[in-house]
Amino acid sequence: MEAIHTETQLTDITTGEPVHAKYGMFVLMLSSHGSENSIAGVDGRLVKLTDIYDLLSPKNFPAMSDKPKLIIIQACAGSMINYFFKNCMI
Q1: How far is CA 87 from the centre of its chain?
Q2: What is the CATH number of the domain that holds 10?
Q3: Is 33 a catalytic residue?
Q4: pLDDT tens digits for 31-70?
Q5: Please, are residues 43 and 87 in contact by the beta-carbon 8 Å criterion?
Q6: Is the pTM of this model over 0.85?
Q7: Which domain holds residue 23?
Q8: How far is Cα 40 from Cα 44, in angstroms, rounded to an integer?
Q9: Would you call 5 a catalytic residue per the annotation?
Q10: What is the number of domains present in the chain?
């Protein structure tokens, strides 16, 4: 979540303008383990997809307001997530 938030707040160091204001769309690709309506972060904690979508809202990402956002999420959402967290996480 922190990386997505940081990305949405980037500004040009010479002009102070939001970096993304000059772009026509925003693409976010996430690949991880997950469960229904959540995805595992780098720390193994589940993050709700609605929280990610909220970070990309016009209120939180005004530079991309009224511009298309493509979000690609590749994550399992089945019962094996419990196996992963019990057996694979350090």
Answers
A1: 26
A2: 3.40.50.1460
A3: yes
A4: 998 888 899 988 888 999 999 999 999 999 999 999 999 9
A5: no
A6: no
A7: 2-87
A8: 5
A9: no
A10: 1
